[in-house]
Structure formats: structure tokens, C-alpha cells
Amino acid sequence: MKNKIFACVYFLIILFGWHSCSSGSHKNSSSFCYWNTVYKMDTALCREYGVTHLYLRYFDVGWDESTLSARPIATLSVRDSLPGNFTPVIYLTNAVFEKSDPTALDSLARRVARRIKMVDSDFVNVLQSGSDISWNDTVQIKKLHQKFYKKYESILIDCDWTEATRDKFFAFIGFIKKAIPDKKIEATLRLWQYKYRDRAGIPPVNRCLLMCYNMQMANNYNVTNSIASLDELKKYIVGKRYPLQLDVALPVFNWAVLFRNQKSVGIIGNADSKTFEADIENFKAAGLNRYTLLNDRVIGGFYARQGDEVRVEHVTPKELQKIAAFLGQQLGADGTRKVAFFAWNKSYLKNYQTNELDEVVTVLAR
Amino acid sequence: MNWMKSLLSLLVSLFLVLADQANACGYYESESDYQAMIFRAKLPQMDFYRPFQYTMAATFAGELNSDPNETDRYRNCQEWRFACLNNPDLNDIYQLLYQTESDVFINFIRKKANNVLLSKNSFVQYLLKKTNREMLDYVVFAKMAEKMQFPVDVRFESWDNAYQDEKPTSNTSASSKRELETLAKQRIESVRSPFLKKRYAFQLCRLAYELRSTPNAASLYDKYFGRINPNDLMNVWACLYKAHDLAGDEATKAYLQVFMNCNEKKFRCVQLFGDRPIPAGLTNSERSVYNQICALTNPGKALDLLKNVFAYNPANDGLPFLVEREVNKLEDWLVTPIFYSNYAYGNDSPFKNALVNPWLEKYKKENPSLYASEDSVAQAKKKIHSTDMNYLVDLKGFIKQVFLRSTGSERDFYALSLAHLAILQEEKGEAQAYLDQVSDKSLPTLQFQKNVQQLWLAMKTEDVASDSFKEMFAKTMNKVYATEIGGVDRYKTLFGLTLSLANQYLGDRDFVFGNLLRLRANNFRNNIFSPNGNISEDDYNSYFNSNKFVYFWNNASINDINTLIDLSNKRYKTAFEKFACEKTLLDTNWYLDLKGTIAFRDNDLRTAYEAFSKLPESFWTTNRYFTNCLNENPYDVKGLKPDSLRRFDYKFNKITFLKSLIDLQNKAKHDPKEASDCYNKLGSAFFNTSYWGNSWMMCSYSWSVNDLFFSATSKLPGWMQDYMMASRAQKYFELALKTATNNEQKAYANLMLHYINRLSASYRGSELDKLNAVAFGKAFKSLAFTQTYRTYDCPGIENFLR
């Protein structure tokens, strides 16, 4: 009898363990941030990088001075179906909380909830288009809605809240929880919010996504890599462990900053060193990932002049792994931690092998 | 070497993180804020290109609406009026189509909701006639479709389609659109009117694109419209959705047609155009527009494109805008660097040449090849200037060709362009000759530009200090200011002009009008960002007000401040003075304080005392600016006692303080017994008015930990060398030591001389300062039996000596 009980308990443990590894999204898994305004997935690339989860930007909310109200911006245009699990992300500018009346936050939360459903409907619409279900078959459409709704279990609220806006932002999270009671609410966490938690406060959520990029001002001429560096990160990840579970977002994007007379002119998206190194007629290496222009030319939407300087920035796989090792050590083990790479873009990913990103995930998510 | 680079990067970044705090108040200026843009001549058709106004930093600069006057919408209304046999009033059609909320009209029709305005609308009355049922059905349909579109505002969207309706409307976006699509398919077959068929066809193309239906928008366009018809607005608008659905050359051709034949969709076409190769088989007009679109998004030299635009179609009405863009680019390349290098905030800061970064200096020495020398930077700038001037000549040559073939307003426009380029070349006679060719009856916007250029030319040809120039300047500026030319153009021009004049005054060392005009230029620039003058008083009081005296603090003399005070008190100002003083002057009390501060830092205590004496005592005790910074006893040396013992409740009064300093100086001179004590007190007070003390605000209006990075002391002005190294205090302590009659006096003087030299050593890393600090420290230790030693001895001194 005793043996049977042990066997049952053992079986239940195995079953529970299996379940938690296969169905929940909070297992050691890599994820990408999809921040575009149009959703169209390169499924081959998705398979290549073994993407199991996406942080998917649904829409932004900004403050409209003309109507003196918070309004949505750049809602996702859905052109494709989702391959796996995901977390919808809603970005609210800090101005929304600076300017909003506290009494309006309740209705703002309800509006955000409704708009999330609208984007959900667009995904369902794509599902229906690719199936035999007629658009006026309400029963089947409802089933599609239900099926789709199960694809995500949490919603990420992204805001660079400040000491001055934290109370309103936290109140808003409370309202969002009420408006969407069947989903978990998570929040993004900037590095300064991690370090100065006494001023920034701890958001009333269970999990946060710690955003480990854009660590310094890109327009600063003397910075080596404004996107991320271990040295810079070490300045922020100090003190006691954060009291909430933390997922981590790491940068895999690249850009270049154009300088004239050591003053920033602008950012050239998706630029890499190889391009400048190869173009010896127009660029001369100037050390520290920098290149000097030898001729006037239009580059990345800017008219760059002879003598201007381009600083190319990206985080190498090695640096990324060092950052991950440091974070893993500092944040502690968390078997449910998600590691997300910012951002999903074919041209960014060419700089990283799948195994290099896997290593980062392994180090950080164990 | 890599570790060296990493270390260097870390140190440099650490340094800059700190250095950046200087701007941490949230305000900093970028080069684009100062971008010169004085040429803003406008022709009516240039409104359609407003989003593509030149900027160095982005493709689109203006309002993102390429049809601000709604020409396309009025064209649509005209088509409706024609279809209604000219019966309804055009304004009534406009009101219903574009000014009536969808729900309001739908409820009015379906629920017979009461609406007086709509009942009286002649278009509505026409639609309600039984014979016009099909038209009414279409308008209701269009209003339903409108409900599902995002508003015209390209940035903000609506929360849903019913602001007031709190009920969920999540299904509207997809299924309701599908319902509409089905309805449109039925109606397009059943309606008899070709006019309505076209409108349903347009709606179908749009819905097919949005719903990604089959057949797609391109197929539907081909089915219902066949080919482009420039005279049919629905056809042109629908062609945009066709373009979206196509790729390659076919899409390019479709975008070109839409761009050519309507205005509202011009912006969207350019936005989606990208880097498309030119398709084969285009007509000359299409080739011209292709080059036009490429030029609109080119931030570099686009003259070759302009030549193509003109060669393929001399009548292309977009050419003047492209010419304006090229002139603006040249202004930016040639004039902006002058604005920027001479007039950026902080550029005349006394600190500007004294920045020292030892690691960077060392690294530069070790890696000379990685850093361009100042000579090579200057050479590159010279070369850029020369290529830009050559480009200007080429551009001028092209505009002359176009000018000769132009007539009317366009001719005036090109004459202004040529005059402007001639001014940039300093060809004054030629500039005047072209300006004379601009008709006095030209458009107001061109008259505005003519006045602006006349002023700019006068600045370069006349004596700007003469009364005749000043009178003419003020009169013309007021005329220019009063001309409404739309958008922020006016302020951008006024900013550039005023800054140019400020430039000349500052160059002639007239710091009163130079600074006032620079402040006036700042005000115009603020209006660029806030065209309605919507800057709160708080903003003025914080950043702007401080600049109102910081500019003077940086470069003005006591005489300049006297002139400023006279000007401030002058009851009847000339027109020029009024212009320079508007929103730039402060209350006289501020100038008296500034005068006293400048005199104090220059060691003219009498003048300082006289200036401060004219101020009410409450000036320093009620103004937060002072109470936050001048709140400690100036005779208690900062740093000698632990910070925990510092008290910040001292009622600081500059008059009393100055008087006590003058009294101490007199006493020291006339009473040898008291001399050493007096000198020690004077030393303590002057130490506190230095960078290191608790009353630094006696000399400066700002203090930052970053000031320490500016440690090339020989490059600082004399008074600032005193301020940063407490030299005045040092002299008094040396006198105290020399005249000391007891060991307590000696101990205190030695202690302070040790302290000052130690601080100086830490600031500029000088060996001599270090040796002095050691010597005075040892002397202090030799007086260990004194009360002073027992009071002020600390482990820091011992550690330093070790």
C-alpha cells in the first residue's frame, strides 16, 4: 500500500513537472520583442531561432495636447497569424501620467483593455481568413476568439514612470488588473528604476521585464557604446535583490551615431561596421568603432560631410554573454525567467548565431 | 592595448556622465535649434509640400498634411455639387461630408434625431428627396465607413469608434468592415449613377486593401476604373490602394500618378516611395515627378535632380519648393556653423577653453593617428566651405535659367532666391539688383521675404550702430513681425535675422545690444516651438530669466551694466531700443546685483558696495535663488568643520557683508596689532566666496561639481583663476602669517594655506601646490600645542602629509 502511495505521489510529481515545462510560458525560454507597427512573421527565421514567445507591441498611448487626453498611437497592423505564445505590450508615455487626472485613470484602463481586444480581433480575423470558417459564422468565430485568447496569459505594461508619476502609474496598473481580471499584469523596469527603487517605487505586479539596453545617451560623443556595456550595467545592478521576479530584455540591435564637430546629428538605423570598413573610398577607420567620412554623402537620411564621424554601436555576442553571466549572478536563479532579445529584425539577427543566443538564455534563465 | 581602450572608454564615459549633469536641468540646445533658415519665400502651391521642408535631421519637418487648405476635399464637394445638378450650396456639402460626425448624420437619418443644422442644410434637403434615395444611401454608407477609419490626425488614433459609448465595440474593426464590403459589392451592381458607382468602387478598393480581401485593391481598381483619370478624384484616391497592393515598377507608376493628380495623398506617396528605381516607359511628366519625389527626400545636394525636374517638365509647379529647399540647405551649411559656434549657450562661458581630461590627453598623445589634429579639422571645414560655395554658384546658374523663363509671382520668387544666394556670397550689388526686380505688387509672403532680405543686406552694407540703420531695422522688423505667413516660418526667419544682428554687435564688442538682441532672438526661437507663445511664467523664471543676466555676467563690464540700467529706466525708448528690450529686460534690481557681483569678483569692493547698497535688504532674503545658496555665515570656513555642523539659516546680506570686509581691510591697514586677525578673517571670507566656500554666489551665478574638470587654469579669466584657486584668500592668509603676533594666528593661517594649496593641488594637479600644502601642513603640525590645532586637526591632514 505504502509503495502504491509513493508511486502515486511520484507519478503526480512527474506529471506536474512535465506540465509546468510544456504548457506554461514561464519556463526557461527565449523570447523576442516585436516592436514594429506591422505584424508579419518570417516563419523560417522564427524556426531557425527557435522562437517560442514574443513580446508583441500592440499599441502605444501618448498624450494628445489638442484634445488634452490620452490617445492610442500606432496600433499594430496585423498581417499574419502568431506562431506561438506571446505577451501583448502596451507602451504608455510618461506624459500620460504627468498630464492625466487621477480620476481619469480608471476609464483609461478600460479603454486600453478594449483596444487590446480590438487587436485580438484583428488576429482572429487573420485566423478566419486562412480557414474555411465564414466571417458570419458567429459560433465558429467565437471559438476562434476563445482559442486565441488562450495564447497569452499576461500583459506587459511599458512605461518609463518617474518618481513624480509613480503613484498614478501604479494606480493605473490596479485599474488594468480590474479591467482584465483573467490575465496577469506585468510591467517593464528600467535600470534606474531598479537601482533607485526607493524613489521609483516597486510596481504592484508579480513580474517585471528588466530592460538592459540604451544605457547611456547616444548623442554623447565620448560614450563608447550607448546601447549596453557590462561596465555601465554594473553601475545600476547594485544593492539588494529586487523584490519581484524579473525577466530580462537584452539588446541585439545595432545602429550608428553620426557626429559633426563632436555634436550628434542623428542616428543611422541598422548600421554595422562591415559596411563602413568595406567602403574605403568614403570612410577611414578612426579607432573605437569610429569612422571618419572622407567625402560628403547622404547616409541614413542625413547629409554627412567630410570630417563627420560615425560611431557604430552593437553588443557583441561575447559582451552579451558577459552581461548575461553578470545578471545571472546578481539577479539569482529563477527557473521561470524569460530572456527576451530586443528586437526581432532579420538584419539584427544576422550578427548572432542561434547557439550564441541560446548560451545567453541558458546562463540567465537557469 | 584593448584593456587600455576599455579603461579609457570607462573613464571618459564616467567623466561625461558627470559632465552631462551640467545640462541635467533638462534643457540643452542642439545644432538643429540654431539651424539658419532665413529664406522662407512662399508661393501658394508650396503649401502642398509643407511636410518636406528642409531639415538636417529628418526627412519630414513640417506639418504632415500635404493639403492644409483641403483642396482635394473641396474638389470632392464640387464633384458632388455637379452630380446634384448644382442645387446644394458648396459649403453645405462640405459641412455634411467633412464637418458632421458620422453618428450625428446616421442618427439624423435612421432615428429621425432632431438636428436643426442638418435640417437646414441644402445638401441634406437635396438628399432627402425621394428621387435622390441612392445618393442618400451612399452618403450614409460613406459615413458608416468613416466611423471605422482612424481620424486624419496621422499620429493619434481614436480609442474606438464611439468616444462616448462605453460598451465594447471590439468587433467593429473586422466584421463590420466585412459587412460594409458586402454591401458595397451589392450596391455597385445595383446603382445606376456612374457617379455613385465610382464612389462605391473607391470604397471597395479601400476596404479590400484594409481587409486584405480577394480580389485585392489593385484588381478592383483595374476592374472599376481601368486607368488613371486625373479629372476623377475617386479614381486618383483609389489608385493609392492599388499602389499599396502592387510591387516594383507598377507600384512606382501608381504612386507617381497619385502624387501628380491629387494633394491630400502626396505625403503618403512620398512616405511609401522609398528608394525606387526609375521604371522604363515613363512620360516626361512622370519622369519629372519621379525626380521631384527623390529631391524632396534628399538631405544632400540635389541640384541634378532639380535639373531633371525642370528638363522633363518646365511647368512642374513643385520646382519653386525644391529651389527653396536647396537655398535652405546652403543657409544651413554656410550660416548655421556661424550661429552655432558663436552663439550657442555656454560658448562664451569663462570655462570654455579650460576643459582638461588627462586620460584623453595622454591617449591622444599615444595614438595621434586616431585623432584628427586641429589643423586637419580646419582644413576639412575650409574644403567643405569651398565645395558649398561652388555648389551655390551652380545652383545660382540653374535658377537664373529658370528665372529667365518665369513670369508673375514665380519670377518674383526666383528673383528673391537669386538675391538670397547673392547675399550669401556677399555680392551686395547683385543682391540689390535682384531685389529691385521683385514687384511691389507681389504676394504678401514674397513681400515679407523681400523685407527680410533688404534687412539682411542692410546689415552687411550699413553701419549697424548708426541711428539711421537702427530706425530702419526696427521699422522693417515690426512690419515683418506683423506679417502673418503661416506656420512657424515667421519665427524661424525672425530668429535668424535677429541673431545675425546680435552677431554683429557682439563682434563689435557692444555687449549691451549684442546680448539683448541675442535674448530677443531666443524669444523668437522659443516661439518656433511654441507658436502661440505658450511658455509658462515658471519656464521664464527658471531657465530664461537666468540667461537674461548670465549672458551679461559672461561678457559685460561695469559700464555695460550701467548702460543697461539706464536703458531699463529710460522712459521713452527709441523703436530700436523697444525692439531689443521687449521680453529681454529684467527688473533693475537684478542688474544692480549683477553690477555688484561683477565688481566684487573683480576685487572692486567699493563699487560692489555702492551697487548692493541701492538694493533693498529683502532682495537676498526673499528670493529663492539666493536663499538656497547664500544661507551660511561667510566667516565660517566651509570644510573645516564636519558637514553635520553646518547651519543653513544665516540671513545673508550682501551690503552688511561688503561693509564688514571694507572695515576689516581698513582696520588691518591702520591697526598693526589687529592686522593678523583681520587678515585671517578676510582670508576666511574670501575663501568662502571662492568655488570651495559656502558663499560662492558672491562671485558666480552657478556652481557645479563639473567646474573642476575645467582645470587648465591659465586659460581662465583672471577673476576666475582667483575664484577656482581661492587666490585672494591665499594672499590674505599669507599677510596674516606675516603680521602674526601670536601662535594661534600663525596656526590658523598655516592651516588655511595648507587647505587652499591642497584643494588647488586636487583641482589642477600641480606639484608646486602639493609642495606648498606639505610645507604649510608641517608648519601647522609644529603648532600642535595651540587651541587652533586642537580645534581643527584631523586625520586628513596627517594622511596627506604621509
How would you concisely characterize the structure shown here?
Chain A is an alpha/beta fold and 366 residues long. Chain A is 37% helix and 27% strand.
Give your account of this protein's structure.
The complex is a heterodimer of chains A (366) and B (802). Chain A has 366 residues and is α/β, with parallel strands linked by helices. Chain A starts with a helix and ends with a helix. In chain A, a hairpin with a 4-residue loop joins β13 (283-285) and β14. In chain A, α11 (317-331) runs parallel beside α13. Chain A has helices at 2-22, 43-48, 94-99, 105-129, 138-149, 166-179, 191-195, 197-200, 230-236, 273-278, 317-331, 346-349, 354-365, and strands spanning 29-34, 38-39, 53-64, 69-73, 77-78, 85-92, 154-158, 184-190, 207-211, 245-251, 254-260, 263-269, 283-285, 290-293, 297-299, 302-304, 309-314, 338-342. By secondary structure, chain B is mainly alpha-helical. In chain B, 64% of the residues lie in helices and 0% in strands. Chain B contains 40 helices and no strands. The longest helix of chain B is centred in the middle third of the chain and has 32 residues, at 374-405. The relative contact order of chain B is 0.06. Residues 1-29, 161-172 and 533-544 of chain B have low confidence and may be disordered. Chains A and B meet through β3, β4, α4 and β12 of A and α1, α8 and α19 of B.
